Amino acid sequence: MLLHMPSVTEGEEENVPQSKPSGTQDAAALPSRYWYLCILALSGFVTSFGAHIVATNLPAYAEAVGVGAFMIGVLIAAYDFAELFAKPLAGFLADRHGMKLLLIIGLVIFILGSLLFLLLSPRLLLLVRFIQGVGAAALSTVSITLVARYFTVGRGKAFGLYNALKGAGYVMAPALGGFLTYRFGFSMIFVVAAGVGFLALLLSLFLPGARQAGGQLEEDEELSLQQLVLIFTEPRLLPLYAVIVINMFLVGILFGFLPVYLYAIGYTPVQSGSVVSVATLSYLLAQPLAGYLADTVEVRLTVLLGLLLAALGIIVTVFTSGMTLVVVVTVAGVGIGTVWTNSDTLVSTLVEKGRLGASMGAAQSFKEFGDMTGPLLIGFLTQVYGVRTGFVTCGTLALLCLVILARSHTFTRTGER
Questions:
Q1: Using CA atoms, how far apart are residues 215 and 222, in angstroms rounded to an integer?
Q2: Which domains does the chain carry?
Q3: Each residue of 204-218: pLDDT tens digit?
Q4: Within 10 A of 81 (CB to CB), how many other CB atoms are there?
Q5: Where are any strands of DSSP class E within 110-214?
Q6: For 216, what's the count of Cα atoms within 13 Å in the CB-facing half-sphere?
Q7: pLDDT of amino acid 109
Q8: Residue 335 CB: number of other CB atoms within 10 A?
Q9: How confident is the model at residue 174 (pLDDT cuts 50, 70, 90)?
Q10: SS3 for 113?
Q11: CA–CA separation, 237 vs 69, rounded Å?
C-alpha cells in the first residue's frame, strides 16, 4: 500500500500543500508521510555525505596525484559551484515536469558521476565533482520541496527531522571516508557514495507518482524562465535570502575556523576535535526541536532568535576556553541549526502557488553562495587581523543585519504563519 496515499493521488500530488488548508491534512496519511520523509531525508543525506566524504579526504588524493592546496580548494568549490547554479533550475524543472522525475534524474546523475571516477584518470576528479554537484543539486532541491508538499501540518517538525537526518552525512562522512581511504584506497569513497545514492534511488520509487507524463500545468501556474529570475528578487523573500546567507557565513566560521582559534589557544587535536563535535551535535540535535517550535510559535520569531544566538555565540567564543567555551559553541550551534531549518519552513509558507520548487531551489542556492563566500571572508579577516578580529567582525556584522532584517516587512508580519 506504499504506492497509494488517499490524500495525495497521482494527479494531485504536486498541488496539495499549496491549495489545501493547513488544518485539513488527513491524519490517516501521516504514517505514509513519515515513511516518505525518511526516503527524502536519505536523499538529502546523499548530498551531504557525497560532498564531505570526498572533501575531507582530498589531502590524500592531492599527495597521490601531486597537486597542491589550491587544487584542493578548487575541488571542494566545484561541488558547491555546480549546486549554486543548478538548484534553481532543478526547482524550475520540477515545478513544470514533476518532482519525482527530477528526484530520480538527480540520483541517477549523482550515481553515474560517482562511478565515473573509476573509469577516468584521477586527474579528472574536477569533472567528477562537478557532475556529482549537478546531481546533488537536483535531488537536494526536490527532496526538501517534497517535504513541504507532503506536510501541510507539522511542516516545521518535518523540516527539522529532514535536516537533522541529512546533516548526519556531515558527521559520518569524514570518519568513514578516512577509514575507506586508508584500507581500500581513495577510489572506494566513490563506490560507497554511489551505493548510498543507489539505495536512495530504489526507495524513491515508493514515493507517490508525480504528474502524468506530458501533463501540463494550469495556465495560472506556468513559470517562465523570466519569472524564475524574478524569484531571486521577490521582495517577500529577499530578507529571508539575506538571513540564509548570513547564517551560512556563521556556519563557515563555527565549523571551519573554530579549530583555528582552538589551535591558537593551545588545544591539542583531540581536544579541538571534541569541541567541534559538540558544536556539530548541537547544530544537528537542535533542528527537530526548532522545527517543533516553528509549528507552535511564530516561525519568524524563531528565525530571528536563532540568528541572535548564533551571532552572539560566535562573538563570545573567542573570549572563552574550557567548559565555558563548550557552552558557548553549543549555543552557537543551536542558533545556526534553528535558522537552517526554520528559514526553509518560512520560505515554503511565503511562496506563490506553483512556484514552491523554484523558490526552494533559489533559497538553497543562496545557502551555497553563503557556504562559498563565508570562509573567504573570515579567512581574509583572520589572515590580516587575527582570528579574534575575524570572529568578532563577522558576528557583529550578523547582529547589524539582524536589526535591519527584524524591521523588514517580511519579519514584522508576525500574525501570519
A1: 12
A2: 26-212 (1.20.1250.20), 228-412 (1.20.1250.20)
A3: 999 986 443 333 333
A4: 16
A5: none
A6: 4
A7: 96
A8: 28
A9: confident
A10: helix
A11: 37
